[in-house]
């Protein structure tokens, strides 16, 4: 009898360790020849497919464990691995159990080489039913959250529009029902101090109630606060003299701001009416 060598003992120990791990592993460890016929099956194939290892040895892995409608795709994948000589990880497919039922499977597969020739395939397969259920649950929750987010966005948009419309009505009512009478009083007032108070009150009222500044500033962020004030008064149809009085500026300064507005709004070399253009943005 030939004496065993340390190398033989090491190989036997390594083989024993492999078989022990393969027996205990929840993943199915398998190996086929180049045609896909099974040459090794770990015991976990019983839990995964319902077959004992001895029942699968020699049988074609695709013909036996893949549903008929999926076999063409799986043959193509195996051929790609054979030609590329590179492993493929995370391959998902349906596995067909002994009773004909199917279960989701994930496989890591690598080619077995002899020199540069592929002589078979080796892999690990596992049941991912629980993982797929979790993924589907997360997809469902993601859709729900997306729908809720879209609904909230719509509500916020509608709320902003309603608020803007409400502010616009307040502004228009004040312009129509309040400001004209204050201006009449201002025009007939002989008391300079009282006239000053009225002028300040009208100017402040314009600032408080106007939504045009907000609209314009959101659309044209390049305008300064003073330019926005002038723009609002132009929209209202105020004359240069009236604007100068309301803003406590000279008429020349108001004209300067009008020119700045036309330049920033791209109307400098156009015949477009500045008031009409500003009104279109409100």
Note the main sheet: 5 strands, antiparallel
**What radius of gyration results from the CA coordinates?**
41 Å
Order of helices and strands: HEEHHHHEEEHHHHHHHH
State the distance separating the first and last CA atoms. Answer: 103 Å
Q: Roughly what percent helix?
A: 55-70%
**What's the CATH H-level homologous superfamily of the largest domain?**
PAS domain
Explain this structure to me?
The chain is an alpha+beta fold. It has three domains: 11-127, Beta-Lactamase (2-Layer Sandwich), CATH 3.30.450.20; 129-170; 171-281, no CATH class. Helix content is 61%, strand content 15%. The chain is built from 13 helices and five strands. The protein has a five-stranded antiparallel beta sheet, sandwiched between helices. Strand 1 and strand 2 (38-41) form a beta hairpin. The protein is rod-shaped and about 125 Å long.
List keywords for this structure.
282 residues, five-stranded antiparallel beta sheet, alpha+beta, 5 strands, 3 domains, Beta-Lactamase
In terms of topology, how is this protein built?
Layout: H1 6-24, E1 28-33, E2 38-41, H2 45-49, H3 53-56, H4 61-65, H5 71-84, E3 88-96, E4 102-114, E5 117-127, H6 129-177, H7 179-188, H8 192-209, H9 212-219, H10 225-235, H11 240-247, H12 251-264, H13 274-281
Antiparallel strand pairs: 1-2, 1-5, 3-4, 4-5
């Amino acid at each position: 009898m030939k004496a065993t060598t340390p190398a033989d003992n090491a190989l036997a120990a390594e083989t024993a360790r492999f078989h022990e791990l393969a027996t205990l592993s929840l993943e199915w460890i398998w190996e086929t020849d180049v045609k896909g016929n099974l040459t090794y099956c770990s015991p976990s194939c019983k839990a995964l497919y319902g077959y004992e290892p001895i029942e699968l040895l020699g049988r074609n892995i695709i013909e036996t464990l893949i549903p008929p409608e999926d076999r063409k795709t799986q043959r193509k994948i195996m051929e790609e691995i054979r030609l590329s000589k590179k492993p493929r990880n995370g391959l998902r497919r349906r596995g067909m159990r002994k009773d004909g039922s199917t279960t989701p499977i994930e496989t890591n597969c690598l080619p077995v080489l002899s020199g540069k020739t592929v002589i078979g395939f080796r892999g690990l397969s596992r049941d991912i039913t629980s993982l797929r259920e979790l993924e589907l649950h997360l997809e469902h929750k993601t859709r729900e959250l997306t729908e809720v987010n879209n609904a909230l966005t719509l509500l916020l948009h509608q709320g902003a529009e309603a608020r803007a419309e409400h502010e616009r009505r307040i502004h228009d009512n004040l312009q129509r029902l309040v400001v004209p009478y204050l201006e009449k009083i201002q025009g007939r007032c002989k008391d300079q101090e009282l006239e000053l108070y009225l002028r300040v009150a009208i100017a402040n009222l314009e600032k408080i109630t106007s939504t045009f500044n907000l609209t314009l500033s959101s659309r044209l962020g390049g305008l300064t606060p003073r330019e926005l004030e002038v723009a609002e008064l132009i929209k209202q149809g105020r004359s240069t003299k009236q604007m100068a009085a309301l803003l406590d500026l000279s008429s020349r300064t108001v004209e300067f701001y009008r020119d700045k507005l036309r330049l920033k709004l791209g109307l400098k070399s156009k015949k477009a009416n500045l008031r009409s253009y500003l009104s279109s943005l409100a």
